[in-house]
Design goal:
single chain, alpha+beta, Protein Transport Mog1p, Chain A, 2 domains, six-stranded antiparallel sheet, five-stranded mixed sheet, 18 helices, 14 strands, 39% helix, 18% strand
Length: 457
């Protein structure tokens, strides 16, 4: 359970993309594929040294930019709506602009929702799921070890402030049960960073670069947006509320409250790793454009602090043969190293999970369907070398052992037969589906190319 004092003083970012609210970005502790807040951790944990191979960007904003930022964009007062707002919302926005060195039009209003659990986007965990992720894809998440059950009950979630920035230019705040002026200020400062990101079209810019079409793309985009917001909010706190706990400090402690291998843990990782990545790339929130303009391309780069050009995703020379089979390909996805690491935490300690995910080169999740019944899956992973491939295979098997005993070389999880195979070289393949699908799938490697043959009818 979360300590009351922390709940009252810690801003909490959330990726609330609920269509009903047309949410652009938000702040909350992760519930399902939701997000996070701040806690107490060593500064070295939240602000690591420079990114490998790339020195932090160092230069102050120009005098003109700083002067414009001081003006706060315009002279309008930001309207407060809903429940009473115990802070000066207009002044906070002007301060955030100074920290960022920006000069955008102020939001029209800040709306405080008093009965936060009367709102669907905060009461229903699944309301925060990304709309383009199908139930079938989430089924594989569960099979792989990333659980979907909520970690916190409603009373615990009441202690967590929440916020959202909408396409209509407004900020919505959902205060915690014991909220104070301090907790409202920090949540609002974080939301203002998201608002400024939206006004400068940073999310659209990142989606043009990464497409956002895969699970790993979405992790990277969210890591950059939330990492930047946490980094900027920390700067705000240091400048205007010295001595208070930092926004970044929440995430490490909050992670300890989340079940290993949960979707909440995966969501929270975007804040922790995103903040570390941004802190390693720049030395001032006024230089966040350097990260938006040259973002990481994979969650591997985010996790390890690699610059965009280092450790690119490896090619995936894979052929799938369905001749004579009743199965048909229904879609593909790339899950990424961050997903691998969280999945392995179900049954394994953090160190073993990180080792099992290290050396990720690329992956493709193939989803297969036939006329009736559940989907089947072939998760093909390519590693940097055969040693990393073996390490993952061993770790994934150990994770499966922790959930279900092996029978005749396979595992049964949630009614699906599962197997992890090492066909050769730097490849591993996780198979999941009916027993006939798993046992009837043939894997061969020739000249570094992987062939997947599905024979079951």
């Amino acid at each position: 359970m979360q300590p009351p004092d922390m709940a009252a003083s810690a801003p909490t970012p959330a990726a609330l993309l609920a269509a009903a609210l047309l949410v652009v970005a938000g702040c909350t502790a992760p519930t399902s594929v939701t997000e996070d807040r701040r806690s107490v951790a060593d500064r070295a944990t939240t602000a690591p040294p420079a990114t490998a191979g790339e020195r932090p960007t160092t230069s102050a904003p120009s005098a003109t930019t700083a002067a414009n930022a001081t003006a706060g964009g315009d002279n309008r007062t930001i309207e407060a709506r809903g429940a009473p707002l115990p802070v000066n919302q207009t002044r906070i926005f002007a301060r955030v602009q100074r920290v960022l060195g920006t000069n955008v039009t102020r939001p029209e209003y800040v709306y405080v929702v008093e009965d936060r659990f009367g709102n669907a986007t905060t009461d229903n965990d699944t309301a925060t799921d990304d709309a383009d992720r199908s139930p079938g894809l989430y089924r594989f998440w569960r099979l792989a070890g990333v659980e979907s059950e909520p970690t916190l009950d409603r009373s615990e979630r009441r202690r967590i402030p929440n916020g959202a920035t909408t396409l209509f230019g407004g900020i919505r705040l959902y205060p915690s049960a014991n909220y104070t002026a301090s907790s409202i200020e920090w949540v609002l400062a974080h939301e203002y960073v998201h608002y400024i990101q939206f006004k400068n079209r940073r999310s659209a810019q990142l989606r043009r670069t990464l497409s956002g079409g895969t699970t790993d793309d979405r992790f990277v985009i969210r890591s950059v947006l939330e990492g930047a917001a946490v980094y900027a909010t920390d700067a705000y706190l240091r400048r205007y509320v010295p001595g208070d706990r930092l926004n970044s400090e929440f995430y490490t402690e909050y992670a300890r409250q989340l079940a290993p291998g949960s979707r909440q843990r995966y969501a929270n990782l975007r804040y922790i790793a995103g903040h570390r990545y941004v802190a390693g790339r720049i030395d001032s929130p006024a230089r966040l454009a350097a990260v938006y303009d040259r973002p990481p391309r994979t969650s591997e780069q985010v996790l390890h602090g690699y610059p965009p050009g280092a450790e690119p995703a490896r090619p995936m020379p894979v052929s799938v043969n369905l001749t004579g089979s009743a199965w048909r390909r229904a879609g593909t996805d790339t899950l990424g190293e961050a997903f691998v690491r969280v999945a392995l935490r179900t049954g394994l300690n953090e160190s073993r999970a990180a080792c099992g995910a290290a050396g990720w080169g690329n992956d493709t999740l193939y989803t297969f369907r036939r006329a009736s019944g559940n989907a089947s899956y072939a998760w093909v992973l390519r590693w940097d070398d055969s040693e990393n491939a073996s390490e993952f295979a061993s770790a994934f098997a150990a994770s499966l052992d922790a959930r279900a005993p092996a029978t005749n070389g396979t595992w049964t999880v949630d009614g699906a037969t599962m197997d992890v195979r090492s066909p050769g070289g730097a490849w591993t393949v996780v198979l999941a589906g009916p027993e006939g699908f798993v046992r009837g799938t043939d894997l061969t490697v020739e000249d570094g190319n992987l062939s997947v043959g599905v024979a079951e009818r």
